[in-house]
Amino acid sequence: MKDNKKIEQIKNHLxxxxxxxxxxxxxxxxxxxxxxxxxxxxxxxxxxxxxxxDKMMHFDRERIPERVVHARGxxxxxxxxxxxxxxxxxxxxxxxxxxxxxxFVRFSTVAGFKGSTDLARDVRGFSVKFYTEDGNxxxxxxxxxxxxxxxxxxxxxxxxAVKPEPHNEMPQAASAHDTFWxxxxxxPESAHMIMWVMSDRAIPRSLRMMEGFGVHTFKLxxxxxxxxxxxxxxxPKLGVHSVLWDEAQKIxxxxxxxxxxxxxxxxDNGNFPQWDLGLQIxxxxxxxxxxxxxxxxxxxxxxxxxxxxIVGTMTLNKNPENFFAETEQVAFxxxxxxxxxxxxxxxxxxGRIFSYMDTQNYRLGGPNFHELPINRSIKxxxxxxxxxxxxxxxxxxxxxxxxxxxxxxxxxxAMLKGEEIGFESHxxxxxxxxxxxxxxxxxxxxxxxxxxxxxxxxxxxxxxxNALSFELSKVNDPKIRERQVAILNQIxxxxxxxxxxxxxxxxxxxxxxxxxxxxxxxxxxxxxPTKPQEIQKSEPLSMKIxxxxxTIETRKxxxxxxxxxxxxxxxxxxxxxxxxxxEAVLISSKVGPLKYKxxxxxxxxxxxxxxxxxxxxxxxxxxxxxxxxxxxxxEYKEFIKDAFKHCKVIGFDKHASSLLKDLDLEKDDAIIIxxxxxxxxxxxxxxxxxxxxxxxxxxKK
Length: 701
Prior knowledge:
Elements: H1 2-12, E1 38-39, H2 50-60, E2 73-82, E3 100-109, E4 124-132, E5 135-142, H3 155-162, H4 178-185, H5 191-197, E6 212-213, E7 218-221, E8 227-236, H6 245-254, H7 258-268, E9 274-283, E10 309-318, H8 324-328, E11 341-342, H9 347-363, E12 434-435, H10 447-454, H11 458-473, H12 478-491, H13 493-503, H14 513-522, E13 556-560, H15 567-579, E14 583-588, E15 592-595, E16 601-604, E17 606-607, E18 618-621, H16 626-631, H17 634-645, E19 649-653, H18 659-663, E20 671-674, H19 679-688, H20 694-700
């Protein structure tokens, strides 16, 4: 009986949304849940945008104390050094040539909870806190330069859709389910972002091997008050590399901390990861020059139109002392600006200014989260704010207001004394009606999605097709699948056909009526005519590199051995690899002492039972009495077969190459035999190409 009463109590609080009008938490009907309130279609968001504030404040408080998004993260300390002179563009002190600025960087996934795997298919957060002379500046970005939505009003909906479904809390850290694709298939503005997330960019090889982007267009402001639009890029010195989807799933099983461990170990070993900071600069007068809108966060500026100018380098050189105190408590906020940098009227960016500060106030126990050591500015703060939760600073005196005479007017405004420059928003003329609307310049949803797909190499396109087929196969509702394939058909006919073939769907020529209905809530005349695009293909959008072009620094090469292996054969390749910055790891049938053919003993930390092929970048089987032992070792065979499947470089000593027949593998250009004097150079040059993708293409034919 008691159980029945409890069930009745629960039923009394059930809410059924079927056939109900959308409303605020106070019951006020909402006629636009897609656009925040702005001063004109392309103007800034207004403070009185109470529907957005109501929605976002509820969203920011949904998890205690874990971040709602970006819960799974890794961080490191470092330094940014400015190397070029751009003083004509900005007065920001940390962007003056020769300046060195301490930084803290946090990398993160988006969809998963704190305990999820590093290798989920997901966007990666790439956020940098600069501890500058003028206070902290936060560049809060991602490893993908665009986003799913154009207005912050839709952000809670996007995250709710991609998170585990609320009735059963499944699946974890995955977008391959109905609610996500239901949302996406009704939001054609997400088409460009979906191409990136379904590409190999969403499963990086390492945090050290992914690009970072500011996503939004910002402004740089110089001493004359002139503004320039700017896009921020982080380009990794090690190149941009990924894993295969099959690898990602296996790595998650063997080591769900793969990215976190990789970053920690490399910094600990002195292999400090580096990124160059690049800027795309657009003069104010060119704001409307392009067929896309600079304020639209679902668009890039192709590098062929505006080249990326490299201006400085960031080096991460110190791991945190305490994960919670630093990586977990670091608080980023795109509204944390310094003189010389300002925001634009991008409606997604405008909403983030509120959301991030509100989140940190909530997560970290109140308005004094900036006093935590990891968030504290190197420049001492001075204001008359005294109280609040978790206050650690002790403000002297009896004045807690401004203006005042009792404290001699202190602290005073910048520029009133000395040469201290205060922050000043860039002046711009605003006009327009107070509206909830979307600019027609935001209405082209497919041109750049097409550009991205057509810029990919053949193997990268195949991976996108496979990813979409996998994700949509996990969707139970056939109508959702059909709607999304119709969207793909607007991007590329061949893409839609191949995904459709995998799903037994014939792509429709036009968008689904329901998709059009939602699109027309933002643009009543949708679809609008698209402007001619200046380029059809952009090389920087592809990750593919050719043999010999990259670097093998910090790559892990597995030497597959057993007792009786020749030390001479091991050292011949090992010494050259280490001189190139790679790491050679010996893997044997058991951990502990390994006896070389020459009589030497080495202690082995890795075995075929404790490690997996997917954790290594390349492989080598040396000569020795070990060859015959490996011939009958099934775990060894699995290592090689997985390496072959994942298109990695596989090397054999001349006498060990007889194992190829036992493995039933055909030799190709990435199976290197030590049978001539150039084999080591060939092995390393092939490794520099990251993967031998022709192998996968040949297997598909």
